[in-house]
Structures are given as structure tokens and as C-alpha cells.
Amino acid sequence: MARAGGRAVSGAKANEAEPAAPGAGTAERQRDEAAGGEPRDQVQEAAETAAATRERTGGLGRPGRAMNRRSPFYIGMTAAAGVAITYGVAELIVRARSLLILIGLALFIAVGLDPVVTWLTRRNVPRWAAVLAVILAAMGVAAGFLALAIPPLTSQATALAHNMPHYIHELENHNSALGRLNARYHIQQNLTQMLTTKGSTLVGGILGAGEIVLSTVSSALLVGVLTIYFLADLPQIKRFGYRLVPASRRPRAMLITEEILARIGGYMLGNLLTSVIAGAGTFVWMLALGIPYPFLLALLVALLDLIPIIGSTIGGAVVTLVALTVSVPVAAATLGFYIAYRLAEDYLITPRVMNRTVEVPAVVTLVAVLIGGTLLGIIGALVAIPLAAAIHLLLNELAFRRLDTS
Q1: pLDDT tens per residue across span 56-94
Q2: Model pTM?
Q3: 51: which of 5, 37, 198, 379 is 20 to 30 A away, CA to CA?
Q4: Per-residue confidence band for 249, with pLDDT thresholds at 50, 70 and 90
């Protein structure tokens, strides 16, 4: 009996030592509420606990225990979320493609202008003042270009409207060159028929051209505003990007990113240098041959030369057409000058400048510009070289090293 009693006593102590079953506190609270006690507001209780945690730790508390990654529910939800997010991102890129291109262009311009802002901030200039100085300088260049471009266009349009009756009289005069062309090809009759029968199409074309101009102006304003915001907040944007990288790899990611941004800035400065050379050469050539509007067209060539490969070609064609107003030999000489300059720029100036700034071989530069221009037009040609420089750096630092040691 004693042994049996001992077993009974031991069993009773074991039962007392067992932990309470889950939900025991909830059952006790329910019994207390059933016995007449006031019910506890669980939301208020959680709020008090949160306030105590904030007061004790000064933060937002400790994160909860991670979910079991081997759970079928977790695996299924992760796979479904991955598919949904991938589809959503792809759909977003397709629908907002034009807007994303403008945002990327604004960010690219901001990164390209950041070395100038950094140079000013190193000389004890506040960042907001440095950004303001750079933006005012860019706006000054644009205002100067418009101030030089509008008067010639206005005067030439006025001259065309003033000479229109004379041209009409020449068309009706069979003894003049225009009259003979009119009698042979029926220019006046075809123009009249086009205006009467296809007037709606012509009006639609004019409205479409106006819509294109309005869209271009609005896109330029959007890029300008975004560039200012990106340039002002670029340190915070980079810091946010670095927070997305694991802490163990963050220092190397920062070094690689800063090198890529430095190459983009170097490309912008190098491209600006080649544009200044093109504009200066155009100005000297036009002054030497007496071609009208030398400063305006030199500035136009410098701006167009910012677009790789095709920019200087378009600028040279415009200057050659203007040179036709002087004489045919002057236009032919101007065409030869731009062909020679294009060869010198492609094989002497640009490879040397780009090799020093972005460290990209000349053949890679040419292929990148062609691919970028095919995919995204002028914007693609503009950003192709720094993008190729970034890919070249990533291949050297990540892929090639592992391949060499594998």
C-alpha cells in the first residue's frame, strides 16, 4: 500500500508539474466573464502592450518568428505571389513603357550632371545651391539657343509670306523658270486640287503635327522637372538602393555602383567635349566661307552632336542646306568638310575621349549605339554607351573573375 500510495503521490506531483494546455488562459477569462466579471478588450490590451514596448525599446519591437519555409502553404503562396508579381511587373513595363523611358532619361541626365554638383559641394557650396547653379546654367543655354533661333525663323517666315504673291505670279508667267515648270508638271493645278479635295487630310496632318509638338514639349518639361528632383535627392536615392543589398555584400555593391556612376558622368563630360569641338569647328568654317547664321547653326550642331553617330551627320546636312543659299561650290565644300570631320570624330576624337572616360573599346561603342538606336531611337543611342560601360564593368568584376577561377 505504501508503494502504491507512493506511486499515487508521484503521479499527482507529475500532473501538477505539467504546463497548462494552450488556450487555458482564454478559458479562464471566459469563465471569469461568465461569472460576472467585466470582459477585457483584446484590442485595447494589444495597444497597451505596444505602447509599453515602444517606451521600453524606443523602436517598433522585435520581428516575429519567421514562417516555416518548408510548409506547403508557404511554398504555394510564395510561388503564386512570384507569378503574380512577375506578371504585374511585365504588364506595368508594357503599359508604362514611354513614361518609364522618360523617367530613365531624367535619371540618366541627373547622374551625368552629378559630378559637377559634387565638384561644387567639395568647395563648400551647399548642395541645393550647386543644383540651382547647374539648372540655371542649363536653362541659360536653352534660352540662348531659342533667342538665337526665333528671330531668323520669324524673319524668314515673314519674307516667305511677303514673297508669296511674287511666286504665284512667277508660276503663272510661262516665260519664267517656275512658269515653265508649272506648265510642264501642273504644279498650281495639283496644289489647288490637293487643297480642295484633301483639305480634311491636310488639316488632320496639321493637327497631328501640333499634337506631336505638344507631346514633345510636355515630355521635355517632365524630364526637366524629374531631373531636378533626381539631382537634388540623388544621395538619398543611392542610399535607398544600397539598403536593398545584403549587408555582407553592401560595401562591394557600393564600390561597383559608384564606379558605374562615375563612368556615366565621365561619358557625359566626354560627350560634351566632343560637342564643343564640333560646334567650334562649325563656327570657324561658316565664318570663313560667309555662310549665314554661324553662331546659331554652330550651337545647333553642338546640341545635335550630343547624339552619338547620327547627331553630327544631321547637323552637317542642315549646315550644307543653308550653304546652298550662298552658292553650290560653298555647299559642296561644306559637305566635304563634314565628311572629313565625321571620319575624324569617329576614328580619332571619340575613341580617345570615350576610352579615357568610360573605358569601352571603339567597336563596342559603335555596336552599342546601333543597338540602342534600333530599340529606343534617339534616347537609346544616347544611353547606349554608358550602359555598355556598365555591362563591361559588371562582366569584368563578376562574371570573368568567376570564370577564370572555375
Answers
A1: 776 777 777 777 777 788 888 888 988 999 999 888 888
A2: 0.62
A3: 37
A4: confident
